[in-house]
């Protein structure tokens, strides 16, 4: 691609991304009353999306071969248990991540 | 513990000329928001470096990952862009890909419609910098009463974006100099989403009583995603999963929305504007 084509391509990608970000706010401006259905979605979508994001992070993990997803499952278990125990987000994230790094760098190479 | 019962306190400072008060508000919000962005910092700087290295390894100039990190600011799309930019010129397909990859922003927008109400001049920037992580942090944050919400959201958004740009710059300029073993560091993102998911779960009800009724959204999200991941390939399951989630939550709305014990519903009358 030429520099001009690169700029046009990036502009197209920016336009597409920005569209997805602004569309809900354009469709349901703050001055107008938001339809009841959308308010309902605004409340129930987020917990579901958090579940989706967790699965999204694990999309490339193979549970049928290789490490069988053991480092991921063990580390997630540690994150969940430490969070239930201490309710400290940073602590849970740090312990899970450090454990995962140790596992994939030593045991599950 | 109900996530919808927080009273929206009046922001006395917003829109006023009183600069010192506003500066104070801003600084207090920065202090409150910074710790919550630390895991994002670890994840974004690391992924940003990977992105910068990838772009440069494709033979593209090092300023390109920095600029795209700032203006596109969608990690998954930018990794695809590295391939798109070295193939033939198809702006419309690039646009379509961006819409597909960004489709989940629609869900984030709908979820934040209420929280990003009355944000003044910051609103445009808050919407522009919506990302998986920023949305997750801002949506789930329990902002203290004495902290200005608009400044809090603003700082989380700005810091996250700065981490991503800094990572891309580091990767683009000095990526080859990194020698310590970073393998597995990207798990910090997974860990963050797991804790945010757990946090949401506990907000919607603790214990095993009414387990399914209290956590219907969480179950729908997890199960739909797993099902679609099994049916479709790993890089194509997001849109079907979103449609399935939307479909189930719409189909069973009567049941979910009127159930008084469900975490989503109590106090909804009072919340309506």
Write out key terms for the chains shown:
heterodimer, A: 109 residues, mainly alpha, 4 helices, 0% strand, flat, B: 273 residues, 14 helices, 67% helix, disordered N terminus, disordered C terminus
Describe this structure in words.
The complex is a heterodimer of chains A (109) and B (273). Chain A contains 4 helices and no strands. Chain A has 109 residues and is mostly helical. Chain A has a domain of 49 residues. The radius of gyration of chain A is 21 Å and the shape is flat. Chain B folds into 2 domains: 169 residues, no CATH class; 60 residues, no CATH class. Helix content of chain B is 67%, strand content 0%. With 273 residues, chain B is mainly α. The relative contact order of chain B is 0.14. Chains A and B meet through helix 1, helix 2, helix 3 and helix 4 of A and helix 1, helix 2, helix 3, helix 4 and helix 5 of B.
Topology record:
The complex is a heterodimer of chains A (109) and B (273).
Chain A (H helix, E strand, L loop, with lengths): L2 H25 L8 H22 L12 H17 L2 H19 L2
Helix pairs in contact in A: 3-4
Chain B lengths: L18 H39 L5 H9 L3 H10 L6 H12 L1 H9 L9 H7 L3 H9 L8 H26 L12 H17 L7 H4 L1 H16 L6 H14 L1 H6 L9 H4 L2
Helix pairs in contact in B: 1-2, 1-3, 1-8, 1-9, 2-8, 3-4, 6-8, 7-8, 7-9, 11-12
């Amino acid at each position: 691609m030429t520099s001009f084509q690169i700029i046009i391509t990036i502009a197209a990608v920016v336009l597409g991304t920005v569209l997805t970000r602004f569309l809900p706010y354009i469709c349901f401006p703050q001055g107008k009353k938001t339809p009841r259905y959308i308010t309902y979605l605004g409340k129930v979508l987020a917990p579901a999306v958090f579940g989706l994001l967790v699965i999204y992070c694990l999309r490339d993990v193979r549970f049928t071969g290789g490490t069988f997803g053991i480092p991921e499952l063990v580390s997630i278990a540690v994150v969940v248990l430490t969070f239930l125990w201490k309710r400290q987000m940073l602590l849970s994230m740090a312990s899970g991540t450090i454990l995962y790094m140790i596992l994939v760098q030593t045991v599950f190479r | 513990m109900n996530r919808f019962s927080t009273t929206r306190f009046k922001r006395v400072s917003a829109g006023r000329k009183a600069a010192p008060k506003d500066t104070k508000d801003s600084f207090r919000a920065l202090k409150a928001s910074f710790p919550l962005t630390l895991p994002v910092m670890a994840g974004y700087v690391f992924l940003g470096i990977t992105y910068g290295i990838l772009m440069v390894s494709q033979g593209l100039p090092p300023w390109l990952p920095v600029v795209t990190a700032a203006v596109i600011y969608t990690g998954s799309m930018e990794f695809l862009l590295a391939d798109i930019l070295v193939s033939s010129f198809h702006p419309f397909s690039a646009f379509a890909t961006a819409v597909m990859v960004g489709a989940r922003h629609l869900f984030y927008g709908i979820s934040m419609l209420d929280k990003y109400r009355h944000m003044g001049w910051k609103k445009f920037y808050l919407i522009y910098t919506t990302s998986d992580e920023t949305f997750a942090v801002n949506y789930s944050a329990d902002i203290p009463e004495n902290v200005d919400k608009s400044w809090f959201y603003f700082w989380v958004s700005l810091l996250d974006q700065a981490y991503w740009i800094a990572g891309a710059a580091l990767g683009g300029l000095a990526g080859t100099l990194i020698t310590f073993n970073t393998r597995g560091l990207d798990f910090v993102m997974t860990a963050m989403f797991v804790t945010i998911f757990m946090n949401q779960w506990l907000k919607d009800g603790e214990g095993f009583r009414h387990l399914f009724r209290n956590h219907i959204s969480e179950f729908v999200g997890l199960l739909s995603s797993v099902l679609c991941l099994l049916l479709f390939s790993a890089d194509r399951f997001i849109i079907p999963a979103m449609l399935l989630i939307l479909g189930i939550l719409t189909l069973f709305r009567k049941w979910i929305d009127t159930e008084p014990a469900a975490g989503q519903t109590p106090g909804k009358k009072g919340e309506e504007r």
